[in-house]
Amino acid sequence: MAETEKPDLKEQVALLPLSPGVYQFVDRSGTIIYVGKAKSLRKRVSSYFVQSKEHSAKVRVLVKQIVEIRHIVVGSETDALLLENSLIKSLQPRYNILLKDDKTYPWIVVRRERFPRVQSTRILTRDGSQYFGPYGSVMMQRSVLDFIREVIPLRTCKLNLAPELIARDKYTVCLQYHLGNCKAPCVGRQSEEEYAQLVGMVVSVLKGDLRPVRQYLEGEMARAAGELKFELAQRYKQRLDALDNYAGRSVIVSAKIVDVDVFSLLPDDDVAWCNFVRIRHGSVVGVQTVKLSTGVGGDERDMLTLAIQHIVENIAGGELSREVIVPLLPSTTLLFEGVTFTVPKRGEKLELLEFSRKSARIYRAEQLKNLEIKNPERYTERLMNAVQKELRLDRQPRHIECFDNSNLQGAHPVASCVVFRDGKPSRKEYRHFNIKTVTGADDYASMREVVFRRYTRLMAEGAEMPDLIIADGGKGQMGVIHEVLERLGLDIPIAGLAKDDRHRTAELLCGFPPVLVGIRPTSPLFHFLAHIQEEVHRFAVSFHRQKRSKAFIHSELEQIEGVGDKTVQTLLRHFRTVEKVRAANIEELSALVGAAKAKKIRAFFEK
After folding, report:
1. Per residue in 222-235, pLDDT tens?
2. Domains of the chain
3. Which residues form the GIY-YIG domain (predicted)?
4. How many CB atoms lie within 10 A of CB 227?
């Protein structure tokens, strides 16, 4: 695996996205010492490094120990909360306890008593009770408790339910019984065995397994319906709906997927980024992306096999879950005895795979951005080498120009040329062109005119010619550019970027006659070329809009009888907009264009 030099903390913070997610602070020993959630990762993490009197002594001590910042992007604040909770429970970072306002985390306890109660607590005692947690926030803990109380009818009272007290009829049923939230073991209407079955369901829920409670609710609903107790059956149906809502609200905590490992692969030209997600008891407990060299011949199945093997040996503690979710089957499964590989097509497993893919994409983008910030020359060198290699050029294309046309049903045809130097837009060199020799919508003729005008002028000025010309189009546009260059006696490589039906970059062509170049849509080269295409299209369309807008203004004023082009120019030069011309009084207009025309203008706008 290729190691990437870690940037300093300031750079690490600058690279964080503004998305919701979970951040982890790591000390010099590589230990995660704090886990937190954020609505905006960059804003939240940067607040730790701002000098403030509001920071407690413990926070200041924490910050001094941070040498690395890791993070995981998720889709919402709720997912961030759930993932934070899962990671805190699995990692137990010491500062998460120390910084919690000197309080311990909330836990859920199943009491060791007859007819056990399920409660919230911050105090752990060795009394034989079962404790689940800790939870990263009271909100998260309460949401779990509220769900349990909504679907599983257990007692909440403090009564001493000793057998002799129940036998003496010491108690009477309370409101919770009448509401259907308790089955009244206090008066002997529920046996210990039946109550223990419900407690077992609670324990399963707290471990991430909702299957027992689902089976119970479905059975009770069917029994109630069979006995024609439709109101009771409807109550169980509502509890099943609550169960489905709880199970389906987040990819971070799953009721159906209990223990799995997830791998996704993002191949680039000479490396691959592999993301690993570990899920235990229905919760994500680890997410990590590694960068691997692709010295295996470029086959994705081979890359995935080696990536899984590397992660198992170096990150996953030498073991895999019995089920592993992957985007495609590894080239061999003999290395992973007892493991079932699943390639999902739909449902929660596909959502988990997409979560893993998104994590890999974000990590790759951050690493490339980090390389660009820390060593822009090296980043540019790699990018230019990739363009030269894929397009089979004699030298690096440090100076690239790209052309695009824009018109609306042949009206107001324009074209644009954008210039990139060393992989970056050189906006001061961008040029607009009004099409002069073409009538109607003829993209090829418009391209022929613009390319001829552009390079005729550069030749006359003795200016530098580009290393590469890109046409925003396919073979036809490339052929037109080739024809013009031959006419001018210029030998400049040509590439073409063809779009699909949704106007997205679909394929890269080069040479003459043009040949298709296969590059991965995930590669930095593909994104660079797509960026050029988007930039020239944006520049051309904005100019065309501007021209249409000006044409509309002129056409409206030219509808006024007796007002010609010169008068229109005079009015717009003075008033700037048609609205201000419309608002002008007769005296202002008379002083500018004379009394006769002023009357006609006022009459036009007052109609």
Report:
1. 888 888 888 878 88
2. 9-98 (3.40.1440.10), 260-371 (3.30.420), 384-548 (3.30.420.340), 559-605 (1.10.150.20)
3. 18-97
4. 10
